[in-house]
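Researcher: Excuse me, tokens okay?
***
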Amino acid sequence: MCRLGYNPILTNPYNFRMIQGSIVALVTPMVEGGAVDFQALDRLVEWHLAEGSDGIVAVGTTGESATLDVDEHLAVIRRVVEVVKGRVPVIAGTGANSTREAIELTEAGLKAGAQACLLVTPYYNKPPQEGLYRHYKTIAEAVPVPLILYNVPGRTGCDMLPATVARLAAIDNIIGLKEAKGEIGRIRALLDLKLQDFILLSGDDATACESILLGCRGDISVTANVAPKLMQQMCAAALAGDRAAAEKLDAQLAPLHKDLFVEPNPIPAKWALNQMGLIPAGIRLPLVPLATEYHATVRAALRASGVSS
């Protein structure tokens, strides 16, 4: 199998082995009313780099990709790439429930300079496994960029099974999977496939520590939005096989893993970042600001994790 970074045909060759550790699923800062705040985005990216995040996903589902129009979507990817300047990998969220639209977004993500693209399973359509296979195969054949599959059945109503992942892993520029089913049994089943040169990433913060200790290469994380340094340290310890250190850090992070989901993501994460003075309060309909009844819960999680006093 010839993987990216070694294939001269590909227009965006990249050492995909650098994609590991704590990769933040970055929120998209917005002013009240929902317009993207690019100055806040610049500051947020620089903060993540200073705090040690190992990679950044720009306009993934946590970045409100479903409600950004195409021009906004691509402008945010370009801006993140410009600010990062190659210091860590930038992964562009380019998934869609239309294969044609996903191809167009992925082509644009490549042109914007992203090192890889992350494609969520088609949502609402509920394609069968053969439909998922053909969807991703068609995109991979159309766009010569490293692709990372993304399975999050709790949000999409579609579960990509390990057998389908194995079929797709044979395609040269499909380099990995973000698995967010949130079940260690699923992680074990994927690791049991023993796929060569294929990056398995957790997409579920609550099980990420154990997933990495078992063999995943990192975590595409919501928690990393508010606790990037601790998440990086936890992932690094788990990658090093230091179970005691990793579990100690993960226990500190556990309140955030839980309470950043008291309402649908990214509502609590954006509220927390606003309280930390890092972004304005904006979020785009149909999402709304965190309900007042949950303010104390999220504040307590921030304090318990040591993020705020």
Summary: The first strand starts at residue 21 and ends at 25. Strands lie at 21-25, 55-58, 90-93, 116-120, 147-151, 174-179, 199-202, 218-221. The longest helix spans residues 243-259. The CA atoms of residues 91 and 121 lie 16 Å apart.
